[in-house]
Structure formats: C-alpha cells, structure tokens
Specification:
Among the domains are: 102 residues, Orthogonal Bundle (Arc Repressor Mutant, subunit A); 136 residues, Tex N-terminal region-like; 140 residues, YqgF/RNase H-like domain (Nucleotidyltransferase, domain 5, 2-Layer Sandwich); 79 residues, Nucleic acid-binding proteins (OB fold (Dihydrolipoamide Acetyltransferase, E2P), Beta Barrel). Helices cover 49% and strands 12% of the residues. It is built from 30 helices and 15 strands. The strands form 4 sheets. A 5-stranded mixed beta sheet has the order 6-5-4-7-8, with helices on both faces. Strand 12 and strand 13 form a beta hairpin. The radius of gyration is 33 Å and the shape is globular.
C-alpha cells in the first residue's frame, strides 16, 4: 500500500524527497510563505499555491488514515474484523469508501431489519439469500411463525426476511460503489418551480431545468440550492429506475436460492434505502464540489485584486457617494494620512452640485490633489458625472478612478476603524478607505474580511470556515510576496506577515511608537513575545527602509546575508554599489562566473542565490509595479452613449463560471460571456482573465431597461441583434 508521501508525490508529480521535506517543514511549524520563499532547495521551488494544496491534501489523507484505524478498531471490538476486510479498509482511497465498508458494522438506529432479526427471522433471510438449489420460501416461512414474537403468519415472516435482505444489499459496499458510479454516468439533476404559477425571479432559468450530473456547473448547483432554501424551487436527482435495477439485479440475484424473492427484496432495497441515500449523497457531493469550485474561484479573483498596482506618491481624494446623507470626502497625503474631510451634496439639485464642485475644487487646489477615487456604490453615477465637471473646473491635471467599495462599510463600522479614526464618523472613515484603496489596495483591503470584498459568487452560502481559511491563505501569500514596511505598516497588515499574529503585530506597532522607527532587522527581536522562531519566519518579509544596511530593505533573509556579501565580492561589487543602484551587470557577471560555482562558494543553493541576486539589483522593489497600472479617467460615459461595435478599454472586476464583468466607465459593469472571451474553447474564464486585467472590449448589445451591457473580446465575431 502506498504511503501518504508516495500518494502526494504521485498526485502532484513531484519527487518523494521533496514531498517528505515539505511535510517535515510543515510539521515543524514553518509557514507556507516561508517554505515557498526560503526553502526552495528542499522542494524544487514549488510555489505557495501548490504547497497549500499539498497541505490541504495532507490533512485529508491523515484524517482518512485516522478514520481507517477507528473503523478497524470498532469492527475488531465486535470480533468481526477479517484479514480481507482490514485490507479492503486500508485500500479505501476515500472517506466514502471507508464508510461504505463500515456500514454493515455500524451501530444503527432501530430499523425494520433489526426488528426482524429480533423476531428470529435472520436464518430465513439467509436461506433465501444463499447460493444454491431453489427454495420454497412460502413453505419455509411457516417454520418461523411465532405469535409471541409478533410473527402471526407466513407472510409476516417473509416480510421480515425481505427487510433483512434489503438492508444487507443496501449495506453492501460493492453494490453502493456500482450504483454510485452508474449515477455519475447516467443520473441528472432537475429543478422545477415550487409554485404552479411562479413569478418572474432570478431563478426563472431553473423553473424547468435538467442537466446530467457530469455536465452540471457549480454555479448552477449553488443557484438551485439557494432557490430550494428560499422555497422557490424543488430540486431532485433523477435516475432511470429500471436501468439502476438491471445493474442491481445482475450484481445481487444470480444463483440465489430464492431468486424471485431476492429480486423483489433488491427492488425494495433500491426504492426504500439505496436511492434516497444516493440522492442525498449525490446532492451533498455536488454541493461540496460546487463550494470548492466557488471558493477556488473566489481565491483566484482575490489575488489579482489584492495585487493591483498601487498609485503611489500622490495626494488622493476619496469620495464615498450617497443621496440623503451626501457624498463623504477625505483627502489623504501620499502616505495615507488624512489631510482634510468634508461632506458635499451633489445629488441635491443643481445648486447642491455646484456648491459641491466649488468646495471640492478648493480642496484640490489647497492640497494639490492628483487623483480622485470614487466608490462604485449608491449614487456613484451622479458623483462620477460631478467629478468630470470638477476636473474641467480646476483646469485638468486631475484624474479619477472608480474604486470597488465592497467591504468599505464593513471596515468603517469595525472596531479597527474606530481605533484608527476615533474622531471621524462611520461615513468619513469609508471615504478614507476608498482613497487609500487607490493608493495601496493591499494595505487597505487586508483590514477587511476577505468574504466582504465582493469578487465571488454565493460566498454567504459557502462553508464559512473553509472559505475563510482559503481566502486568508491568499491574503497571506499576497502580503508576503509584496513585503511590508515594518515602520509604517498597520497592525492588521503586520498580522498577515508569516510568523506574526495579532499579539506580536500590535507589539511591533507599540514598540516603534515607544522607541521610534526600527533601524535594523535585528532590532525586531527586541519586540516582546516575538521569539527566534517567529523572527525566522517573518524577517524576510519585513522591510526596514531606514536601515543603514541595504539588505534590510530587501527580501533577502538574514540567514543569507553572508551569502549576499560573498556574491557581491565574487562579482566585484560591494554594499555601496547596492545603495547606489550600480548592479546592472550583476547577472552577467554571475553567469560568467558560473551559477553552480558561485552557489557552492556562497554556501547556498542555486535558487536562493538567484533570488538574492534579483533582490540586490532592485532593493525595496514592489512586484506590483511591474503590473499594468489601473485605468484613470477624465471623462464619463453614460449607458445611452454606448453603441454596438464601440471599442472600449476596461478593467475586469469579477470572474465567474460563465464569464467576466468588466468596468468600462459606465455605472453598470458589462458582461463578457465565456463564449466571447477568446477564439478557442476554454473550460473557465479564469484560463484567460483575472480580476484587475485591463482589456479591450466591444459593445455587443445594450439593454437600458434591464441595465445590461453585453460585451465581447472577439471583434471577429462581432454581430448585432
């Protein structure tokens, strides 16, 4: 039997030694970002996503082994564990298979079969179920009549025997496996409207819906589940009964002593026990698969959103639009510090709009605002139009961007926001968050529960613990990929750094408030409750720009400082060249010297050496700066301005199973259906698109009444209806 390590190596197509090394590192308490970045030689440079996948699968396989042991022990305690059964349990590849094998031995509630056994009818059942010559069951049943036990007639005895056989068939692991596979190939999931005359709703596509299990999409499963919970839909799994019975009879009946009797018992087993059980199982499996797919897609969308390039070095004005309560305004400096706040009322008639423009123009001139960030929620359309007029009034030099404000209200009402801005009301805090989202999306979005960021589907229907775990992993990977300035980072941002937690993050902030900025990485060891292990995990991801040692402002881990200095010496450079940015020829010199030779002399592996070289060439670099910049606008489009065939540039806001939503500068995002993304077949839009991508699209169709915009990325297939 394969070991867990061997299974993982086969599934991930990686050497066994690499898998063993990762398992050891995980068991020693190392974080995924640390393993991925600083232990590449031990695992062949696997990325953080693959290591997390390995960790999840490792946990499943360990739970599977634990369950195997529990089941075997339980059966052993009953004195019924055979070598064959033990081998079958050990060979079970899934928890479902283990439970199937355990089913006959599991303590059951009182069933019809157990009551029949209490009446002494098991021998009669075994007589019918045995292989051998034909048996007259009606005659045999007469021997089991016992009024004291509740067996008044031969028919009562036969019914009890049938109940026992039906349960035996239902508990047979091979039978369940056979029918489970048949369901997978031949069954369909159907949904119908619960009401006889249903009203139009978002579930109208599912009022008469049927799809083979194998072809049903995750978003369809989740939509049907929600419609069922809201009592709008009735959902069921449909399987041709005769097809299932034919397969069941072939497996159960041949050669039995009472073939017709067993055949009838098998049909009862299917109708009463197996089919309802398999339907529940299939629905659960479909839901689990859909949930995992949706969680995976959410995580996939979240990463590029968090990794959006920051708009650094500019004074930014954040606008949180609103009707009754007005538009909240916050002006922040390039570091995110609040310079000014205001409330304006651009939706309160022409006078209100003009007053808003005058007031905001004064703020722009006073603080030299370069960019305006507008939240894309309520009244954003009117606010955007006002912003365009505002830009014209100040004579240009200012641009605006629509910012996804999902979760801003959650943050503004949070304890964290209250601690950060006790002097501001909830609405003004939201405006600050919107401004900062444009300046540094990652630093701001880490303050918000990832589930509230709004780049998924059905997130409130997901298993919340599993969703939270997956999304937290994405946030952690993004934060550590970028790195964090230990002297400016907030406690929530520091909490996401590998090796740190809520307590040590707060202690870092408190330490720098009491002692001034950190001047070296080593100084971090002085932070209370931050021990050597935590320092090992976090040090490489924390930047200290104020340090006199350039390495402290890079992703080079302190354990590799000597290697970095040795590398510089081998290539004819020193730390002064790093400070001066004079290492343009470092890679060339390293190649000339020989990577393997240099790595050996530096005492590190080649992957680490190459990482060190890259960091030395760009100390303090932000990997997000290499990505396409966000779209900044100076004019606005209205839906009525859109015409079929119009070419536009837009930003992908969300990627879902059936397409992608693109912000094209109109209040309503447009949908690019999966069939309109590219000229080749793709299983999922994420194969081509990610959240934050800047794309060229063409308008296919505009429905102003329903506020729907249909887009295409395939100009060659552009047609109009």
């Amino acid at each position: 039997m394969e070991t867990i390590t061997q299974i993982l190596a086969r599934e991930l197509d990686r050497p066994v030694q690499h898998i063993e090394n990762i398992i050891t590192l995980l068991d020693e308490g190392n974080t995924v970002p640390f393993i991925a970045r600083y232990r590449k030689e031990l695992h062949g440079a696997m990325d953080d996503q693959l290591i997390r996948q390995l960790a999840d699968r490792l946990q499943y396989l360990r739970n599977l082994q634990d369950r195997r042991d529990e089941v075997k022990q339980s059966i052993e305690n009953q004195g019924k564990l055979t070598e064959e059964l033990a081998a079958a349990i050990d060979g079970a590849a899934t928890l479902t298979e283990v439970e199937d094998l355990y089913r006959p031995y599991k303590q059951k509630r009182r069933t019809r079969a157990t009551m029949a056994r209490e009446k002494g009818l098991e021998p009669l059942a075994m007589l019918a179920f045995a292989q051998g010559p034909a048996v007259d069951m009606e005659r045999a049943a007469l021997d089991y009549i016992d009024p004291e036990k509740g067996v008044e007639t031969g028919a009562d005895a036969l019914q009890g025997a049938s109940d026992i056989i039906a349960e035996l068939i239902s508990d047979d692991a091979d039978v369940r496996k056979l029918l489970r596979e048949l369901y997978g190939r031949r069954a369909s999931i159907t949904s119908k409207a619960a009401a006889k005359e249903p009203e139009d709703s978002v579930y109208r596509l599912y009022y008469e819906f049927s799809s083979p299990l194998s072809k049903t999409q995750g978003h369809q499963i989740l939509a049907m589940n929600r419609g069922e919970r809201e009592e709008i839909l009735k959902v069921s799994v449909e399987m041709d009964r005769e097809t299932a019975l034919v397969a069941l009879r072939r497996r159960v009946v041949p050669g039995r002593a009472a073939m017709e009797f067993v055949k009838n018992a098998a049909e009862d087993a299917y109708d009463r026990l197996i089919a309802p059980s398999l339907e529940r199982e299939v629905r659960s499996e479909l839901t689990d698969r859909a949930n995992e797919g949706a969680i995976g897609q959410f995580a996939l969308n979240l990463k590029p959103l968090l990794m959006q390039p920051p708009v650094k070095g500019f004074v930014t004005m954040g606008l949180d639009p609103g009707y009754r309560m007005g538009c909240k305004v916050a002006v922040v400096d390039p570091t995110g510090k609040v310079l000014d706040t205001a409330v304006v009322y651009p939706t309160h008639g022409e006078r209100g709009k003009n007053e808003a423009i005058d007031k905001l123009a004064a703020l722009i001139r006073r603080h030299k605002v370069a960019h305006i960030a507008i939240g894309n929620g309520t009244a954003s359309r009117e606010t955007e139009q006002m912003a365009v007029e505002l830009i014209r009034k100040v004579g240009g030099g200012v641009s605006y961007a629509m910012v996804n404000e999902a979760g801003a209200s959650v943050y503004s009402a949070s304890k964290l926001a209250a601690e950060e801005f006790p002097e501001f009301d909830v609405n003004l805090r939201s405006a600050v968050s919107i401004a900062r989202r444009l300046q540094d999306p990652l630093a701001e979005l880490v303050k918000i529960d990832p589930k509230s960021i709004g780049v998924g589907q059905y997130q409130h229907d997901m298993p919340q613990a599993r969703l939270g775990e997956a999304l937290d992993g994405v946030v952690e990977d993004c934060v550590n990929a970028v790195g964090v300035d230990v002297n400016t980072a907030s406690a929530p941002l520091l909490t996401r750094v590998a090796g740190l937690n809520g307590t040590t993050a707060k202690n870092i902030v408190k330490y720098r408030e009491e002692n001034g900025p950190f001047t070296t990485r080593k100084q971090i060891l002085k932070v209370p409750k931050l021990g050597p292990k935590a320092f090992e995990q976090c040090a490489g991801f924390l930047r200290v720009p104020e340090s006199g040692l350039p390495l402290d402002n890079t992703a080079v881990h302190p354990e590799s400082y000597q290697a970095a200095e040795k590398l510089l010496a081998l290539c004819g450079h020193d730390m002064a060249d790093v400070k001066a940015g004079k290492l343009g020829d470092l890679k060339g010199r390293l190649a000339a010297y020989g990577q393997d030779r240099a790595a050996a002399e530096c005492g590190v592996g080649v992957p680490t050496l190459l990482d060190v070289a890259s960091e030395l060439m760009k100390p303090g670099r932000d990997p997000r700066d290499e990505l396409p910049a966000p779209v900044l606008r100076t004019d606005v489009l209205d839906m009525k301005d859109l015409k079929p065939g119009m070419e536009l540039r837009g930003t992908v806001r969300n990627v879902i199973d059936f397409g992608a939503f693109v912000d094209i500068g109109v209040h309503q995002d447009g949908l690019v259906h999966i069939s309109q993304i590219c000229d080749r077949y793709i299983k999922h839009p994420s194969e081509v698109l990610s959240v934050g991508d800047v794309v060229t699209v063409w308008v296919k169709e505009v429905d102003e009444k329903k506020k729907r915009i249909s887009l295409t990325m395939r100009k060659d297939k552009l047609t109009f209806s």
